[in-house]
Amino acid sequence: MNAKERGFLLLTSGLGVPDRKPLTVAQFRTLARRMQTAERPAETRELTLEDVVACGYDRTMADRIVRLLEDGFILDKYLLRGKKQNCVPISRVSRQYPLAVRKRLGLDAPGCLWTKGDVALLETEKIALVGSRRLAEENRKFAEKVGYEAARQGITLVSGNARGADKVAQDACLNNGGKVISVVADELCNCPLTENVLYLSEEGFDSPFSAARALSRNRVIHSLGFATVVAQSAVGEGGTWRGTTQNLQKNWSPVFCYDDGSAAAIELAQMGATLIKPEELSDLSALQSGTNSFL
């Protein structure tokens, strides 16, 4: 791991220290923008307080950034502990970092993604599935069909590992010999090391669940696949609605919503989603027509 990769980790991960305050997504985005135009120090020396102040920060914030970068010893211990639990980080400047996430999210892409499982799945063709935790029966069958078709067609399913649509689709995919990338919002280290599954998380491999993490991971799910399929949503509430409307506003990936006649489906269609019937899932690759899938 080179110095730049270590820097991304030091700035964006809690490193298992409860009172350590890494930069938020917005703060890290601001720093990245300022560093793009700043005069960079020679790679032979470390970033100093004055370097950061020169980027337009007050001394308090500049000191916080520098102190985060000084936790190299803590980082080394954290990396070793993660390795023992099969958790490996991929920073935004690493070769293995998913190109689709980097390109589509830009500076909003996570500074680091922690992985557990088959990292090679990041190089496969992928489609995302999102949906409510409480599903109507017809919507449950739809989510199940998306998982089944992904497996049958050799496309990796991306989802969020939550109960409801996520679990239904993931189970259907794996039970039919498919492959799954699951973006979790709780402790990555507690996820089982399972064949044909890759678990991803932000912040750290031992970061506990929080509502903020659950919402934040939406952008990763929506940007990983060549398209995002919505099994069910509710108007104006819940992570599925929020993530999908953000996608439609920011164009992370094409959105296809199950045409169940619901108010949510109708409103999402008005925002730019394409309504889709179960029979149209027989050729998932067709959903990426005219888009750049980035795999």
Structure write-up:
- The protein is an alpha/beta fold.
- It folds into 2 domains: 3-84, no CATH class; 119-288, Rossmann fold, CATH 3.40.50.
- 41% of the residues lie in helices and 13% in strands.
- It has helices spanning 3-12, 25-37, 49-53, 59-69, 72-84, 99-105, 137-152, 165-175, 211-216, 218-224, 238-250, 263-271, and strands at 88-91, 112-117, 126-130, 156-159, 180-183, 197-201, 228-230, 255-258, 274-276.
- Strand 3, helix 7 (137-152) and strand 4 form a beta-alpha-beta unit.
- Helix 10 crosses helix 11 (238-250).
- The longest helix is centred in the middle third of the chain and has 16 residues, at 137-152.
- The mean pLDDT is 93.
Which helices and strands appear, and what pairs or packs with what?
Elements lengths: L2 H10 L12 H13 L11 H5 L5 H11 L2 H13 L3 E4 L7 H7 L6 E6 L8 E5 L6 H16 L3 E4 L5 H11 L4 E4 L13 E5 L9 H6 L1 H7 L3 E3 L7 H13 L4 E4 L4 H9 L2 E3 L19
Parallel strand pairs: 3-4, 3-7, 4-5, 5-6, 7-8, 8-9
Antiparallel strand pairs: 1-2, 2-6
